[in-house]
Amino acid sequence: MKQSTERGLVVIVSGPSASGKGTVVDRTMEKAGEERVNLRLSVSMTTRGIGRNEVDGESYYFVSRETFEKNIAENNLLEYNSYAGEYYGTPKSMIEEWLDDGCSVILEIDVNGAKQVLRQYPQAVTVYILPPSFRELECRLRNRNRDSEEKIRYRLAKGKDEIPEARWYDYILVNDIIEESADDLLSIIKAELNNRARIEYKIDEVLETYGEDSQNN
Ligand code: 5GP
Questions:
Q1: Which of 30, 140, 144, 205 is the most buried (most CB within 10 A)?
Q2: Does 61 sit in the ligand 1 pocket, CB within 6 Å?
Q3: Residue 150 sits in which domain range?
């Protein structure tokens, strides 16, 4: 009997700016490749300027406001939000295709975007990445040398407003050591792929094989 293809899992990863979630997610993607876990990373679209170590089409699709607003109007975005006066959003195009192919998809988006995605994918798994402390968060923001003093203050204040929202996420990772956080994130994904509610249908599939003639297999 042919087993049905399982749809992939939607994994939402949020965390304050400079919590290190991007690095954790990148490392998780590498580990997933090594362990043959089918995992894709959604690349968001943004109107903010490109940073020094960022690559267009990898970190984000960097677009003009006009292009972003055209994508909103054409309903091409799964969700979008504005942050520090710039738009950020998740392009819809590949996500359904990946899920149908059985690939799980990581969306690295903010709390507001997470709420929008949960309305469309209520089974999505949510993971919040916390920095060990605000002192550490500030250090990381300064070390990456991307923002003005004003933007750093803004990002820290945004973090303070946003962190309480971690209470409604399914999982929380305190990102002290990247390697450990990435291991934990991949473990969460692997465990969730075997969540009973998700693969309960397999029970019937196996039961249907009872009494099948082993010679025919
Ligand atoms: P940054 O400028 O530091 O790369 O991102 C700023 C904030 O935007 C972060 O909280 C990040 O998670 C969020 N963000 C990045 N991409 C998206 C997206 O596609 N949708 C939403 N809603 N937020 C995003």
A1: 140
A2: no
A3: 2-42+103-216
